[in-house]
Design a protein that fits this description.
By secondary structure, this protein is mainly α. The chain is 61% helix and 8% strand. The chain has a two-stranded antiparallel ribbon. A hairpin with a 4-residue loop joins β1 and β2 (53-56).
Length: 101
């Protein structure tokens, strides 16, 4: 991607979508596992009498996509900051060099 505007748009879109998906999976991980962590018995089950739902320790699997999308958020955020700082330094270099074009 030679065009900085296209790169900026792609990184921004990746950052926003990955942030949304990461938050969704973190919420699912919390609802399916962390919220009931102290309730699990020796068989790995927890019964919620209010909603009449049985939760199992298999809810930890929601953490895998949450971590994956969280990693994408970190990488795209870093690259986005690099692109923004490079774009700013590039534009100030051309405007402050003292030569008339």
């Amino acid at each position: 991607m030679d065009n900085p505007n296209v790169r900026l748009l792609a990184l921004s879109t990746t950052f926003i979508l990955s942030s949304f998906l990461s938050l969704c999976f973190v919420y699912a991980f919390y609802e399916r596992f962390l919220r009931w962590f102290g309730c699990f018995n020796d068989q790995g089950r927890c019964y919620d009498p209010v909603t009449q739902t049985v939760y199992t320790t298999g809810g930890w699997c929601w953490s895998v996509p949450a971590i994956a999308f969280g990693s994408v958020v970190l990488v795209s955020g870093y690259l986005l900051l690099q692109t923004l700082s490079r774009k700013d330094s590039f534009s100030t270099y051309h405007h402050s060099n003292g030569f008339d074009d």
